Amino acid sequence: MGWTFYNASGQQLRNTGTVLATKAEMETGTALTAFVTPGRTQNHPGVAKCYVSVTAAHAAETPNHNISGISDGSTGLNTISVTTDFTTDTYVVVVGKEGNDTVSVHIPESSRGVGSFICNTYAAASLADRDFYVAAFGDQ
């Protein structure tokens, strides 16, 4: 069963059936006439491919998405592992901190692999275990 689409003036735009966006159309983000199913949304470059809030005890809090685990390398060194790997190591990681304390989070560029990345947390200038949150954007 198809859909009938109308513009703001009430003119019929399409009556040939459902047109679903392809993976390629989602990756380029340029198609304006195709519909997106929930399973295809993941392929758009503007959608976070993973996110998680991490406690100082190196636990992944819920909700989280596409995270397979958090590893404690040592004080302030956290390895975030994703369930579905990125296609390259050139994805973008966005981090933030929880609470009002002075915390900085650093992602060493060389630490980004297709399946995991490292977040170093600091209090003042020293490595310290702190709460933080992270999201990553890129191609999978």
Structure description:
The protein is mostly beta strands and 140 residues long. It has 2 domains: 5-41, no CATH class; 50-137, Sandwich (Immunoglobulin-like). Strands 5, 6, 8, 9 and 10 form a 5-stranded antiparallel β-sheet that branches. A 4-stranded antiparallel β-sheet has the order 4-3-11-7, with no helix packed on it. It has helices spanning 23-28, 38-41, and strands at residues 5-6, 12-14, 50-54, 60-65, 67-74, 77-82, 92-97, 103-106, 116-123, 126-127, 132-137. The longest helix is centred in the N-terminal third of the chain and has 6 residues, at 23-28. The model has no long low-confidence stretch (mean pLDDT 82). The protein has 2 helices and 11 strands.
Features:
140 residues, mainly beta, 2 domains, Immunoglobulin-like, 11 strands, single chain
Question: From the helix content, strand content and strand pairing, which structural class follows?
Answer: mainly beta
Tell me the number of helical segments per DSSP (H or I, 4 or more residues long).
2
**Major β-sheet annotation:** 5 strands, antiparallel
Query: At CATH's second level, what is the architecture of the largest domain?
Result: Sandwich
Poorly predicted ranges: none
The amount of beta strand, in percent, is 35-45%
In CATH, what is the class of the largest domain?
Mainly Beta
